[in-house]
Amino acid sequence: TWKPSATPTDAPTTTFAPTPVCPAGTYLYESGDCVPCPAGSYSAESNAANCTACEEGKYQLERGKTYCEVCPANSEFSVVAGRCTCMAGYFECPPRIGNATSDCGDAHLSASDRERHEGMCISCKSYAPGADCSAPGATLANLLSKPGYWRATATTAVLHPCAALGSECVGGTFVTGNQSRDAQCATGHTGPLCAACATGLV
Fold this sequence. Notes:
By secondary structure, this protein is mainly beta. It has helices at residues 111-117, 124-127, and strands at residues 26-28, 34-36, 41-42, 52-53, 58-59, 69-70, 75-78, 83-86, 90-92, 121-123, 131-132, 144-145, 149-150, 160-161, 189-190, 196-197.
């Protein structure tokens, strides 16, 4: 009596190409390849069909990432600057370089509190009264003085009120290049608080 073989050698076989395992940070392209997520997006799971764009207020500058970064407090991501910059109403107190410290208008605070301000966006109203921080992206170096106020250098957040009328102080910032503080003065005025007459004027 004929009995079929338990494992026929002539039976057709079917093979399946294994589905690639695309790690998080990539997505499975229609060609079957794993492609890194572009900057500005992410994938948190393996074998993702696509990448997810960063939510509002978050960013990712690199490819192939599993998450988006969050800007520090009082800041937001600027596409133009390519980094987090301070929101309107705040300015960036620069980080310490060596032993040099910046005057961010917080000299009355303890050393530990001042240290916490380094590299962070802090309130113009609290630490730079007289500064115009109505536009985002303010830093200690580019702080604008309001009309009627004057500051001595681009490395201090202390702004001084001018004379009673204040018309000699038009506000603004230091002239790019020579960092002239007289750019804050009305025509014909110069010196601290714009109180002196320019050469040749009385």
